[in-house]
């Protein structure tokens, strides 16, 4: 029973990190209707900045620079690349983001080489034990931080003028422009927010028990794709639920792998995609999505 | 505005600066499609001016040119000038037009269906340059005009009836406290009673000091509201004049007010006798 509780808690914690990434993904999709395949490279950029600066600056300032840096990279991608293609078909734009992703990831993995960089976080490998259940401090920190950030984001989305502009632009760009919404700013803001959230996620993808930031980190970030898709690409609630579903599925499948060997190895990595496929078969727009990808 | 008054005193074309809106020789194209040709039109300060015309006449195109949203449709103003309160507005971005005091109620209402009524109204205020107090004042005024919107504040706009959505669309545009309100077929798809209510509201908005440019296919309604009217036909101003004169003119009566005289009836019979070419073409296939 305690194994199950541990797996579940770890899964929820990982899931909240995936939710952070998926949320950024959904924000970009809602604001611009572009599926952003460059998301994992934004995450890698934020993580790399934090990792390379924490020795000199200390952890918290380095994290702040990493978050700000990823936001700037996101904004720069929007400003220098996406804006040039405004008015193009959305599938063209999605392919452009693949190009951006390849460029950024290639440069970052070249810099990383085969290194595994620690991010210098203060939690180390200490473990919290309550009764028979023990969970790493990093996992608790991840869950608390993600929950706070997501709460903050949703409140801003709902109550601030920024949120109203964002939702108006998502629903109808032309009508939003008639209301005086600056679409360029909305889309710039979406990319910056997505970058910042991804940088925070980078931290929690690379802390204990993971060894540190390495090339494979961007692969871990890819798990946010099934999270966003199964939740419904245009739904913020969907991103949260999707993130948690993927985290828990992955954790349970990995934990009980030895009991499931008849299904072959590596089930933990595969399970999120199986769940996504199953959900999409029943609800093609995702759990909370209101429209399918190809909308009229 | 003190500035324009000052000009008005000295300029030999004093009446020009008294126009809230003046469009001169505007041509608009959607790629190769020419949708407006040399349209010249004025909206005097404080007036209600109507633009009539059938489907595809270019009415919505005119409003898009004013609000600078042609680019969303692949169109552009190819020549001509648009001035508002003496200032050129034909090179501005949409948000600057709103800030200059021109708001539009687009064709088909276009409320943000997934947002609440209250958030729709907040969206309308996004382009306003006024203070917090001014925005609160605009909201109070809008709720006074449309009490139903205060009752439904928390409801999703998509769930409102067509008439309520039209009220919301008008209210949303008023949130920016415009000096000129552009209305694209506000009576479209409304029952006569609701259309009459919208007409009353437009009169009320105008009485409170907002100039109105009203685009309509419902000529009877538009000519009752307006003091001056233009008739657009395939992108050109075919007729213009004081609303009362246009309402009395044979051509407008026949084509837009549904008053059938003998010639029109004869035309219609002749049209029925000749089979439409489209049908023959379909039969050949
Ligand atoms: N995006 C577009 N691309 C090409 N042509 C267009 C486009 N939008 C409108 N047009 C053309 O421009 C002309 C004017 O269209 P517009 O929508 O302004 O007419 P309208 O007077 O508003 O008609 P309705 O009463 O049906 O709304 C039409 O011939 C139309 O086919
Ligand atoms: Mg129209």
CATH architecture of chain B: 3-Layer(aba) Sandwich
Secondary structure: number of strands of chain B: 10
Task: Give the CATH level 1 class of chain B.
Answer: Alpha Beta
* Portion in beta strands of chain A: under 5%
Task: Write down the Rg of chain B.
Answer: 20 Å
For the largest interface, the chains and their residue counts are: A-B, 19 and 26 residues
Count of alpha/pi helices of chain B: 14
- Helix and strand succession of chain B? HHEEEHEEHEHHHHEHEHEEHHHH
Highlighted features:
heterodimer, A: 296 residues, mainly alpha, two-stranded antiparallel sheet, 3% strand, disordered C terminus, B: 285 residues, alpha/beta, Rossmann fold, six-stranded mixed beta sheet, 14 helices, 44% helix, globular, disordered N terminus, binds adenosine-5'-triphosphate, binds magnesium ion, transport (chain A), cell membrane (chain A), transmembrane helix (chain A), Putative High-affinity branched-chain amino acid transport system permease protein LivH (chain A)
Topology:
The complex is a heterodimer of chains A (296) and B (285).
Chain A: H1 2-32, H2 39-57, H3 59-81, H4 90-112, E1 127-130, E2 133-136, H5 137-159, H6 161-171, H7 173-178, H8 183-206, H9 217-221, H10 224-231, H11 236-255, H12 267-282
Antiparallel strand pairs in A: 1-2
Helix pairs in contact in A: 1-5, 1-6, 1-8, 1-10, 1-11, 2-3, 2-4, 2-8, 3-8, 5-6, 5-8, 6-8, 10-11, 10-12, 11-12
Chain B: H1 2-10, H2 14-17, E1 19-30, E2 33-44, E3 48-52, H3 59-67, E4 75-84, E5 87-88, H4 94-100, E6 102-105, H5 117-124, H6 132-145, H7 147-151, H8 162-174, E7 180-184, H9 192-207, E8 211-216, H10 219-225, E9 228-233, E10 236-242, H11 243-248, H12 250-255, H13 262-273, H14 277-284
Parallel strand pairs in B: 3-8, 3-9, 6-7, 7-8
Antiparallel strand pairs in B: 1-2, 1-4, 4-5, 9-10
Bound molecules: adenosine-5'-triphosphate and magnesium ion.
Adenosine-5'-triphosphate binds next to strand 2 and helix 3 of chain B.
GO biological process, one term (chain A): amino acid transport
GO molecular function, one term (chain A): transmembrane transporter activity
Family (chain A): Belongs to the binding-protein-dependent transport system permease family. LivHM subfamily.
């Amino acid at each position: 029973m305690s194994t199950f509780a541990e797996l579940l808690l770890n899964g929820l914690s990982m899931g909240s990190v995936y939710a952070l990434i998926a949320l950024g993904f959904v924000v970009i999709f809602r604001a611009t209707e572009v599926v952003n395949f460059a998301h994992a490279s934004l995450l890698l950029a934020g993580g790399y900045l934090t990792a390379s600066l924490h020795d000199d600056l200390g952890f918290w300032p380095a994290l702040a620079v990493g978050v700000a840096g990823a936001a700037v990279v996101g904004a720069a991608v929007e400003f220098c690349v996406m804006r040039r293609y405004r008015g193009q078909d959305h599938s063209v734009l999605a392919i452009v983001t693949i190009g951006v992703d390849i460029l950024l990831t290639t440069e970052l993995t070249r810099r990383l080489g085969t290194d595994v960089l620690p991010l210098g976080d203060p939690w180390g490998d200490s473990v919290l034990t309550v009764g028979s259940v023990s969970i790493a401090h990093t996992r608790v920190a991840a869950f608390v931080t993600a929950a706070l950030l997501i709460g903050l984001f949703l409140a801003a989305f709902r109550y601030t003028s920024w949120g109203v502009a964002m939702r108006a632009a998502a629903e109808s760009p032309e009508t939003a422009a008639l209301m005086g919404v600056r679409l360029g700013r909305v889309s710039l803001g979406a990319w910056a927010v997505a970058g910042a959230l991804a940088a925070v996620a980078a931290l929690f993808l690379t802390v204990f028990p993971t060894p540190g930031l390495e090339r494979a980190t961007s692969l871990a970030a890819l798990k946010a794709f099934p999270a966003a898709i199964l939740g419904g690409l245009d739904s913020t609630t969907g991103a949260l639920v999707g993130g948690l579903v993927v985290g828990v599925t992955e954790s349970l499948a990995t934990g009980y792998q030895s009991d499931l060997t008849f299904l072959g190895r590596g089930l933990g990595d595969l399970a999120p995609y199986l769940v996504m496929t199953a959900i999409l078969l029943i609800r093609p727009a995702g759990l909370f999505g209101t429209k399918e990808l190809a909308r009229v | 505005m003190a500035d324009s008054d000052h000009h008005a005193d000295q300029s030999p074309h004093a009446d020009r600066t008294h126009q809230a809106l003046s469009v001169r020789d505007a041509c608009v194209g959607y790629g190769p499609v020419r949708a407006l040709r040399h349209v010249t039109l004025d909206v005097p300060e404080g007036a209600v001016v109507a633009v009539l015309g059938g489907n595809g006449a270019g009415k919505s195109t005119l409003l898009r040119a004013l609000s600078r949203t042609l680019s969303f449709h692949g169109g552009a103003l190819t020549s001509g000038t648009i001035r508002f309160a003496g200032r050129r507005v034909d090179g501005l971005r949409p948000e600057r037009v709103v800030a200059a005091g021109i708001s539009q109620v687009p064709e088909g209402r276009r409320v943000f269906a997934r947002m609440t009524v209250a958030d729709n109204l907040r969206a309308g205020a996004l382009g306003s340059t006024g203070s917090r107090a001014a925005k609160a004042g605009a909201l109070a005024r809008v709720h006074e005009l449309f009490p139903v919107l205060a009752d439904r504040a928390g409801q999703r706009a998509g769930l409102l009836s067509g008439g309520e959505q039209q009220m919301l669309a008008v209210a949303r545009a008023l949130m920016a406290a415009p000096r000129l309100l552009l209305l694209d077929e506000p009576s479209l798809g409304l029952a006569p009673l609701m259309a009459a209510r919208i007409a009353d509201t437009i009169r009320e908005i105008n009485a409170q000091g907002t100039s109105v440019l009203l685009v309509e296919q419902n000529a009877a309604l538009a000519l009752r509201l307006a003091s001056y009217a233009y008739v657009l036909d395939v992108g050109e101003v075919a007729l213009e004049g004081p609303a009362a004169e246009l309402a009395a003119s044979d051509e407008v009566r026949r084509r837009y007010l549904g008053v059938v005289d003998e010639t029109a009836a004869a035309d219609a019979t002749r049209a029925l006798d000749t089979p439409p070419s489209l049908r023959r073409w379909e039969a050949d296939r």
